[in-house]
Automatic annotation (TrEMBL):
Stretches assigned to the RecF/RecN/SMC N-terminal domain: 3-356
InterPro entries in alphabetical order: DNA-binding_RecF, DNA-binding_RecF_CS, P-loop_NTPase, RecF/RecN/SMC_N, RecF_2
Species per Swiss-Prot/TrEMBL record: Dietzia natronolimnaea
The family this protein is said to belong to: Belongs to the RecF family.
UniProt protein name: DNA replication and repair protein RecF
Subcellular location as annotated: Cytoplasm
Amino acid sequence: MHLRHLRLLDFRSWPLLELELQPGVTTLVGRNGHGKTNVLEAVGVLSTLRSHRVASEAPMIRTGAETAMIAALAHNAGRELTVELALNSGRANRARLNTSPCRRLGDILGVVQSVLFAPEDLALIRGEPAERRKLLDELQVQRRPAHGGVLTEYSSVLRQRSALLKSASGVLRRGRGEGADAALETLDVWDGRLAHLGAGIVAGRIALLDELRPLVADAYRGLAPESRPADLAYRFRVATPPDESELADPELVEAVLLAELGRRRQDEIDRGMSLVGPHRDDLVLSLGEEPAKGFASHGETWSFALALRLGSLELFRADGVEPVLLLDDVFAELDRHRRAALAEAATGVEQVLVTAAVGEDVPDGLRGTRHDVVMTGEGAGRHSVITATDSEVHS
Ligand SMILES: Nc1ncnc2c1ncn2[C@@H]1O[C@H](COP(=O)(O)OP(=O)(O)OP(=O)(O)O)[C@@H](O)[C@H]1O
Ligand SMILES: [Mg+2]
């Protein structure tokens, strides 16, 4: 798929951006802090409904504005669709498809597909387990939008169950009595919901990982042939986890989670928090025999992060989906060999959006149409604009 047009209204530093796009490469070049990543972030938000940089929408709405709008004309296998997302401060966000309002935001998932590479990806290797769970869960939602509902419901069950553990911890610790019986009964209900939804999440992650693992290993080998082989494994955090192959069966996972909830109940009551479930699992990344986290060198860390994204790109392609590739500021960090390997992977992609502070950092074959991005104005009027476009330099 590719985007033909992107419009931003009051999105971050852009009061208005109207960007005509074609298949092939588009490069945004400009100095640090001038608004390049903001454009890629907006495309990412259209495709995942989440920013890769912030957890809430407030920072994405231009200072002083009430609403930020991201709109795109997406071309997908001969069909064109306009998709529009309004991020509202203090009110529900709204989406439209071909100008018709959507009942749920999730209805626009799948219209714009993208894979984003960004410097923040280093956190996939070095950061907390939450970063890696997010990688799996977001991929899953992009491929199967209905999965988003399961994740939302799980979070809500987890929130309510944790609130109960906290608020009833006194009563529960004292044990018997009417209050304690009622709280235990409610806790049983939440346990059942948590185990059921949690099992769907674990089984989904395992199935995804099965497909992703060889693609990431291949991509890593291409980027860092001199390094050790890259591998991914799921860490299901229960006392005695079954083999990974068994975790693809949601019924089995549900039973294991229920047993673990029983085993840890007193602990959860004593500590007043939820200690069991896929919100505590991890994706273990390793190079040879060592975990990548804490052991991988700087270059290996970059290669692994890129391999995770390239593997994701190949996963979409295996589904028959050609996502837009968003390369945010990645070339400056890479050595010659890795630059060339990434450029090669990108040249076969239908549409690539690249940002760079220095145009020369972008490999020759990948420059395409170039837009110069500049921050202009003072104080509250400070904003990003495109000052020049050079469409002669097609890749
Ligand atoms: N909500 C907002 N309202 C107005 N301006 C914003 C908002 N959020 C971010 N900005 C501005 O956007 C700029 C950062 O934009 P962006 O991250 O796209 O820069 P960049 O060109 O990618 O820079 P770098 O090369 O350093 O990565 C900052 O100057 C910031 O002040
Ligand atoms: Mg940037």
